[in-house]
Amino acid sequence: MASVAVVAPALTKGLPALNVERRGNSKVAAVKGAPGLRLQNDRFALKSAFYNGASVVAVPEAAGAAPPRITMRTSTQGAYICRDCGYIYNERKAFDKLGDDYSCPVCAAPKRRFKAYDAPVSRNANDMAVRKARKEELKKVDSAIGVTIPWVYWRKKFIEGGYKGLGLESRLVEIDGGATTIHCWVPRETPASARKPALMLIQGFGMDGTMGWDRQVHAFSNDFNVYVPDLLFFGKSYTTRSERSEIFQADCLKKMLDVLKVDRVDLVGTSYGGMVAYRLASVYPELVNKVVVASSGVMMTHKTNERLYKLTKVNSVKKLLVPNDLEGMRRGLSTATVWRIDLVPSFVLEDMFQNFYRRNRKEKEELLDGMIIGSVGAPPLPAIDKKVFILWGTEDKIFDPDLAHQLKRHLGESAELEFIEGAGHVPQIEKPGQFNSRVLRFLLS
């Protein structure tokens, strides 16, 4: 375990040198003896950017002991930088897999003060002189951007508080012998919840499950046991396996539900999540009851995106869904929604970019490359023998509404099709009232 000596002559005169041992979030809580489940930390209090008393323990250091050495990997994959002091985290353990109580080993800034760092990393990157010079560069950047407010952090805390008030809890579910971890909001076990049917909400590209479904969780939780997973490489879900197709995502969700002892479930999937939901119903028909496919290009071909390229003047969907910079994110959001993104404060967009688009960039690009739906030479899409509700925004620029009609023809009489007037690619966010009422009518009928 790494430790850093703290020099404070005025406080330590006449005492042995102090060695500060920083403890990470290594504790794992068993959940009622169920295998593969871990409870998330529930820490809401604001932690100081300069001192976090919960994360440091002072112990006497033996006289003459050599100061600890911090070794640096030179790979830039997964590097993160502390905004407060310039320290670079570049360890083999992915930054996203660190606990929420992780703090900077130099200045004790909380985890939310780190951002992705793409510049080359030298072996002396955390030497004091190098770090101070880098800190000055950070000050210039922050000055150019303006005041940075952790909007995503506090917005997510607010949403998580609402979920907990509805009787949900955050869990990490390990499958594939620990190679894959899926984060999911699940209902607490109560007599009332045992009588409700299960409903799983599957996100699209962009935000994680927590941020993408808050309006729906509140609307659906009275009638359903709601499950809200993060798809792999979004939020806190991750895998070391090499598969990247939407079928692999569906397989992982099936294994997660097996661990959670869910044997029958309704599905609501939007965009990429709609493709995962469709695959889940196709491969595991005994598991799935009803399916809602919202704004999802299930019927797309390798030529479908040509219309999108002409509209946005880009040559790859990656530039919209996994943008390289803030301007690319603005373009993608402006295409996905009917809202005016230019009216959103810059500090909100900057924070969204750091939290949702900079993390796991390589893996998210691999997800797009690994899709079977829409690929050249893809096998014919199987029809599913389920009741399916197709819901689309009339102003969807990502997936042309004609794809909704194609899916209806493909499924025949077992499918219903409705459009939400004036909504874009994310009707669950743009028109949540209409979206929720129509989905509930279908699921409860």
TrEMBL record:
CDD domains: rubredoxin_like. SUPFAM superfamilies: alpha/beta-Hydrolases, Rubredoxin-like. Gene3D superfamilies: 2.20.28.10, alpha/beta hydrolase. Residues 77-117 form the Rubredoxin-like domain. GO terms for molecular function: iron ion binding. InterPro entries: AB_hydrolase_1, AB_hydrolase_fold, Meta-cleavage_hydrolase, Rubredoxin-like_dom. This is Rubredoxin-like domain-containing protein. It comes from Marchantia polymorpha subsp. ruderalis.
